[in-house]
């Protein structure tokens, strides 16, 4: 049986669909007690990875385990892991309540649990309506209710914000965080960092089926650098003075300004004063997480470690 | 396992498909039953008119005692069990095309468990369909037949048994095909084409080639043999000594030309259902659910 640790472990996971390598040698672990974001652009292999973890797709190589076991060895999987997946279907003629009762009996929980989770996701008033008439957001809520039926220790959600209105997204955010705070494991995928930025504590960023970054979101935030954009009276004099002060990352921008990285604006201004250079304009710029994410996941960096310098010009790429 | 069986049962009772298919099944069985009685009556009247005494001499009983209803009933069961077969065909193909199979597999200990639970539930439904077919068929036949043409109590029991058995087997066959062909329309069209057209053409060809015995080993030939052989046996048991040629004609009328004994026919068809289900199981077991 499984060890009850709540740990998700993906090791050297690879999936080949014919000539297409959907996932290549992917490794990461997800610990209980936190919400982990699984990020990457469309087509990066997120859905395939989650489906391999849930035993729906057979890996070409590598392993994916929950509580130390592959999915099919979990015994009663519905009580260990709950999942909301894209393209997870409902019978259009079945009511929401009956849908939940079907799977409540499959998992082996009492029918009362079906009514409880339907209330939890706010669908009580629509419980006896046929799912065929549900909006995308309502279906997403019902999918979440289904995932919660077995009161699982691990929750896996593939793009759960799809179709949810802002109110629904805010509710989901609070719900997932409190779920994780109970010591449970939450893994949530998205193609938008901004969408989950306020929800997740840890991130796994993949692109083209490979891991690009894996660690606390805080660490990713700290790796952002500031740069100073300055408009001096004499470019060469200021650049020379900065270099003399040990600043190497100086770049000439097309608009005539200098971009100086690794220093703050005060230091640049002081150096300019000492060098007798006038400053006509100065500005600090911070690269946001989304741009960092974009650079991590663009094709240009496929196969390399996270880009150390996020200021490099984008050259083509895809995301 | 009991949990999964309950879940699968709930899946079938929480949508309208079971009665949506059960109503035409009952109507068809009733219609065949009525027609059987009327046609049988017409035939018996014709035979009793005196011009066909030779036949009655062969059979050793007077025409008003011929249990002609048996032949129509065998045919009626063969046709009506098409519906439970379609019901079965939608068991897995329906889940695959609606993508509900994802949740089914996520909540089952393994795919084998899920498929076995499904099969058990559809065996139950096959039995229910079989009982309904026999009930409405019986009502139709009794309403339009003279008592002399009806089977005795033992005959009714035997017919009910093979009707339920035939319906269960047809449902299982459908479940297997639905697992092999993950497309509802595709599975149903193929089943209908095969059972209503393709194999009938094959039967004609095999009879022309003078190897009718092969028919009894084909899917439709064997399932028809299950009911057809029982009805011929029941008919003959109340008739006198019958020459082989006449017996062959009677088998053809019952839709069981070239068929084996009823129990062997049942085993042959069970084999077919098993092969199809094993194929569907193998496909489903290794399938990537994307």
Describe, in short, the structure shown.
Chain A: This is ABC transporter ATP-binding protein. Chain A: One of its GO terms (molecular function) is ATP binding. The complex is a heterodimer of chains A (319) and B (290). By secondary structure, chain A is of the alpha/beta class.
Write structural notes for this entry:
The complex is a heterodimer of chains A (319) and B (290). Chain A is α/β, with parallel strands linked by helices and 319 residues long. Chain A contains ten helices and 13 strands. Chain A folds into two domains: 8-216, 3-Layer(aba) Sandwich (Rossmann fold), CATH 3.40.50.300; 226-286, Alpha-Beta Plaits. Chain A has helices at 46-53, 96-107, 111-120, 136-148, 166-181, 193-196, 217-222, 235-244, 265-275, 289-297, and strands at residues 8-17, 20-30, 35-39, 61-66, 81-84, 154-158, 185-190, 202-207, 210-216, 226-232, 250-252, 258-261, 279-286. Chain B contains twelve helices and no strands. Chain B has helices at residues 2-13, 17-48, 53-59, 69-80, 82-98, 101-106, 111-144, 153-180, 184-208, 219-238, 244-253, 262-286. In chain B, α2 packs antiparallel against α4, α8 (153-180) crosses α9 and α8 packs antiparallel against α10. The longest helix of chain B is centred in the middle third of the chain and has 34 residues, at 111-144. The mean pLDDT of chain B is 88.
Task: Offer a few descriptive terms.
heterodimer, A: 319 residues, alpha/beta, Rossmann fold, Alpha-Beta Plaits, six-stranded mixed sheet, four-stranded antiparallel sheet, 10 helices, 13 strands, 31% helix, 26% strand, disordered C terminus, B: 290 residues, mainly alpha, 0% strand, ATP-binding (chain A), transport (chain A), P-loop_NTPase (chain A)
